[in-house]
């Protein structure tokens, strides 16, 4: 004899499905092409096709999927996440990403919230003293995926409801709900990474400064020893920490930035292939073409033509 499920067994599942359903409805109604919303830092995405992996930058965000699924690759690491799961990106990194479940009948729907360290840092002082790190932790990977609990989904739904509210309600309530979301992330599976984002002198923060320097000066050569010194690390410790966070060595990371930037320049069509290669820091046009093809699958000129044709269609 099979006994029927009790309300205590079904209620959590019903609540979760209700929250995900509300998120899907709100995202589908408010998502725009540029992903922006009237709430600063809140992003919405709706995509009705899977497409091919394409280069992008993560930003420092938490991204939650309400419907469909997405795959993000950082170096050799791959992260898949689907309904009710979220990805945390602790520093801005070059990635490739695409939706692996999306269709016109059932589009992929997700939301993102920019993580502001200034909003996160004060929370570290408000939790129990026993929970505060007594010494800097080893750097965590810059990306991670976890399951959202119902309380986090509820906070996300309340944030999206504010898109239908008046400006006065948004101005007062959005920062309060943002704070709740950050608090729940701090106390969730990705808490260690969230704490490192907030700490001004964490290993992650120092590696983040190195990442920003390379990103801003991608065409310039650099010495590992000099960059390590700016992070108050030995060269060997810096190299290990950089790879742990980004999945790349510093030189490999610079190459990723150069190639992503060259693709943008080629798409703009302002220069020929050789000139673009020199602009992003390559001394050899043949080396640039070889590494570009290895990374993107086509020679620079042909890839640019394909991208322009796709943009025009």
UniProtKB/TrEMBL annotation:
<dbReference type="InterPro" id="IPR009057">
    <property type="entry name" value="Homeodomain-like_sf"/>
</dbReference>
<keyword id="KW-0805">Transcription regulation</keyword>
<dbReference type="GO" id="GO:0003700">
    <property type="term" value="F:DNA-binding transcription factor activity"/>
</dbReference>
<dbReference type="Pfam" id="PF06719">
    <property type="entry name" value="AraC_N"/>
</dbReference>
<dbReference type="InterPro" id="IPR009594">
    <property type="entry name" value="Tscrpt_reg_HTH_AraC_N"/>
</dbReference>
<dbReference type="InterPro" id="IPR018060">
    <property type="entry name" value="HTH_AraC"/>
</dbReference>
<keyword id="KW-0804">Transcription</keyword>
<feature type="domain" description="HTH araC/xylS-type">
    <location>
        <begin position="208"/>
        <end position="306"/>
    </location>
</feature>
<dbReference type="InterPro" id="IPR018062">
    <property type="entry name" value="HTH_AraC-typ_CS"/>
</dbReference>
<dbReference type="GO" id="GO:0043565">
    <property type="term" value="F:sequence-specific DNA binding"/>
</dbReference>
<dbReference type="Pfam" id="PF12833">
    <property type="entry name" value="HTH_18"/>
</dbReference>
<keyword id="KW-0238">DNA-binding</keyword>
<protein>
    <submittedName>
        <fullName>AraC-type DNA-binding protein</fullName>
    </submittedName>
</protein>
